[in-house]
Amino acid sequence: MDGSMEMVKNTEKDDDRLFVSSVDKAFKVLEAFGTDRRDLGLVEIIERTGLNKSAAQRFTHTLHRLGYLEKDMSSRRYMLSHRVLESANSFLRVDPLVNKAIPHIVELRRQLNVRIGLGCLHGLNVMYLIPLQSNQAAFRTAHPGFQIPLYCTTTGRVLLAYRKPEEARAIIERCERTKITPTTITDTDAIMTEINNVRNQGYCITDQEIRIGDINLAAPVFDGRGNAIAAVAAACLRNEFSRKDMETKVAPLVIETARAISTDG
Fold it and tell me: Judging by DSSP bridges, how do beta strands 69-72 and 77-80 pair with one another?
C-alpha cells in the first residue's frame, strides 16, 4: 500500500467513532506473521507492527491465551496456531461464490489437467480463493488465500479490464512493478495495452511473467450487476501448450467455466 492510501485509511480511522483501536492493534500482531518466516520474537513483532513494547507484550500474551498464537517456551518466540484456520474455513464453507465455483473448477482441471484457480483482487495483489494443483506440477505455496502481484497476472489484468481505464491505470501505477522474470512486463502503458485487449477477446494471456515455463490464461466471472468480481485462471506449461493452443483449446473452456460460475442479472 502506498503512503497516500495509508494516510487516507488512518484519517478514516480517526474520524470513525465506532472504530476500536485495540482490535486494530490485535490484528496488526496477527498480520505481522507473513510468509517470510514461521516464528517471530517480541522485538520483531514490535518492528513489524509499530507497537510499543508494553502493547506488543499485552497483545501477544492475549492472543496466545486465546489460542491464536503458539509460544515456544524455550526460545520465547511466537507463531500462528491452527486456530487461525477456523475463520478461513468458515468463509470457504459459506461463501456463495466459492461454493458455486468449486464443481466447475474441478471439472476444468479434469479437462485440462493443469493448475486451475479462482482469484479476486485484494489490494495490489490477486488472492486465490480456490487453487487446484495439477497432476504434473504442484507448489507448496498454492493454498487458499495465497497472493501474487496483480500487475503481471492474467487474473489481475482481466479484473482491471472491467474498471474505468483511469482507475485501472492508477492501480497499476501504485504497484511496485519489478521484473519477476526476464519477460515480466513492467511498463504501465504496455500493461494498459494488455488490459485494454481483454474486453475485445474476453480473456488474458501472460507468457512466463510470473514463472519461467508457464503460460497462463484467465477469463472474468461476473455478478448479477455485471461487475467482474473474480476470474478463472489456467496455468499451463509452455512445453505442452503453445500460444495458439491457449487461444483455441484453453480459452473456450476457461471462458465457459467462468460463465457457468457467473451470476445472471
Answer: antiparallel
Contact of 231 with 159, CB cutoff 8 Å: yes
Q: Are 241 and 250 in contact (CB under 8 A)?
A: yes
Q: Which residues of 3-27 are buried (b: 16+ CB within 10 A; e: fewer)?
A: eeeeeeeeeeeeeeeeeeeeeebbe
Q: Do domains 19-81 and 87-261 have the same CATH topology?
A: no
CATH 1.10.10.10 fits 87-261, yes or no: no
Quick one: which of 183, 188, 190 has its CA closest to 216?
Answer: 183
Rounded distance between C-alpha atoms, residue 58 and residue 80, angstroms: 16
**What's phi and psi for 220, nearest 5 deg?**
-80, 150
List the pLDDT tens digit at each of the 265 positions of the chain.
Answer: 444 444 445 555 667 888 999 999 999 999 999 777 789 999 999 999 999 999 999 999 999 999 999 999 999 999 999 999 899 999 999 999 999 999 999 999 999 999 999 999 999 999 999 988 877 666 666 788 889 999 999 999 999 999 999 999 999 999 999 999 999 999 999 999 999 999 889 999 999 999 999 999 999 999 999 999 999 999 999 999 999 999 999 999 999 999 999 986 5
The burial of 262, by beta-carbon neighbours within 10 Å (0-12 exposed, 13-18 middle, 19 or more buried), is given as buried
Count other C-beta atoms under 10 Å from residue 91's C-beta: 13
Chain centroid, CA 17 distance in Å? 31
19-81: CATH topology is Arc Repressor Mutant, subunit A (1.10.10)
Instruction: Name the residue among 137, 141, 145, 149 with its Cα closest to residue 235.
Output: 137
- Written as one letter, the residue type at 130 is I
